């Protein structure tokens, strides 16, 4: 996983945004019309100066909807909490895992049955870089 720093832009790009939701069941007879514009920066990024991207690698987080090659948006300004998905540096390796607290001890959990939980030892070095707030993946 290679972190990609977010380069602040001078002005956020906006795109047409249809206020009427897209039906995923039976279609609605409501008219489709442009209501507003939408900036993905404003929608997805809460703390621009503390935000970066990383690309996911592997299948250990598939149960959380994170697939191999997905783009992860990580916010360093958020305090990692119980059940958050985090980007962490564990013994020099950058990983994405669910942070779980049990008996006041952190455990890094995968979201795939083939990958066991990581119960940290005193010899291991853990540095949590940030909380994953969004996942972007292609459908093609």
Draw up the topology in text:
Elements: E1 3-5, E2 15-17, E3 36-38, H1 40-44, E4 51-55, E5 71-75, E6 85-90, E7 93-102, E8 105-109, E9 118-119, E10 126-136
Antiparallel strand pairs: 1-4, 2-3, 4-5, 5-10, 6-7, 6-10, 7-8, 8-9
Short description:
The chain is mainly beta. Helix content is 4%, strand content 38%.
Features:
140 residues, mainly beta, Umud Fragment, subunit A, 2 domains, eight-stranded antiparallel beta sheet, 1 helix, 38% strand, globular
Q: Give the class-level CATH name of the largest domain.
A: Mainly Beta
Low-confidence runs of at least 5 consecutive residues? none
CATH fold group of the largest domain: Umud Fragment, subunit A
Please report the number of helical segments. 1
Largest sheet: 8 strands, antiparallel
Instruction: Give the strand content.
Output: 35-45%
SSE ordering: EEEHEEEEEEE
How is the largest sheet built, in terms of strand order? 1-4-5-10-6-7-8-9
Rg measurement, Å = 18 Å
CATH superfamily label of the largest domain: Umud Fragment, subunit A
Instruction: Tell me what the CATH architecture of the largest domain is.
Output: Ribbon
Helix residue percentage = under 10%
Terminal-residue CA separation: 21 Å
Overview of the molecule:
- Strands 1-4-5-10-6-7-8-9 form an 8-stranded antiparallel β-sheet, with no helix packed on it. A two-stranded antiparallel sheet has the order 2-3.
- It is built from 1 helix and 10 strands, in the order βββαβββββββ.
- The protein is mainly β and 140 residues long.
- It starts with a strand and ends with a strand.
- The protein has one helix at 40-44; strands spanning 3-5, 15-17, 36-38, 51-55, 71-75, 85-90, 93-102, 105-109, 118-119, 126-136.
- The protein is globular, with a radius of gyration of 18 Å.
- It folds into 2 domains: 11-44, no CATH class; 47-140, Umud Fragment, subunit A (Ribbon), CATH 2.10.109.10.
- β6 (85-90) and β7 (93-102) form a beta hairpin.
- 4% of the residues lie in helices and 38% in strands.
